[in-house]
Design brief:
The chain is mainly beta. About 5% of the residues lie in helices and about 45% in strands. It has one helix and ten strands. It has one helix at about 25-30, and strands at about 5, 10, 20-25, 35-40, 45-50, 55-60, 65-70, 75-80, 90-95, 110-115. The strands form two sheets. Strands 2-10-9-4-5-6 form a six-stranded mixed sheet, with no helix packed on it. Strands 1-3-8-7 form a four-stranded antiparallel sheet. Strand 4 (about 35-40) and strand 5 (about 45-50) form a beta hairpin. The chain is globular and about 40 Å long.
Length: about 120
């Protein structure tokens, strides 16, 4: 059973910061490139940032320069540091492997709301 547990979301004002964390199963973390995805109301889930097993990061254009994704190899977590948050960043954020298939398991996600 894959474990994907996202945490760290909340309500923040525009320009603020949050750090999300995703706890995963050890083997799942070690063998997969990992990613953060988000889904806003009425929208499809989209890829936000990814990090390879070796730690190389990639970002969607909409978040590049504001978000940082990194792996913590000590506790098998994938983290997303989000700075300069905008209202359009409001969404439920999920972590999973990359690529992810249509039948793959998803965790509950964590809600991020950017509003004044």
């Amino acid at each position: 059973q894959v474990r994907l547990q996202e945490s760290g979301g909340g309500l923040v004002q525009p320009g603020g910061s949050l750090r999300l964390s995703c706890a995963t199963s050890g083997n799942f973390f070690q063998v997969n490139d990992m990613a953060w995805y988000r889904q806003a109301p009425g929208n499809e889930r989209e890829l936000v940032a990814s990090v390879t097993t070796g730690g190389r990061a990639n970002y969607a254009d909409s978040v590049r320069g504001r978000f940082t994704v990194f792996r913590d190899y000590a506790d098998n977590t994938v983290n997303l540091r989000m700075n300069s948050l905008k209202p359009e960043d409001t969404a439920v954020y999920y972590c999973n492997k990359l690529p992810v298939g249509p039948s793959d398991y998803w965790g509950q996600g964590t809600q991020v709301t950017v509003s004044s």
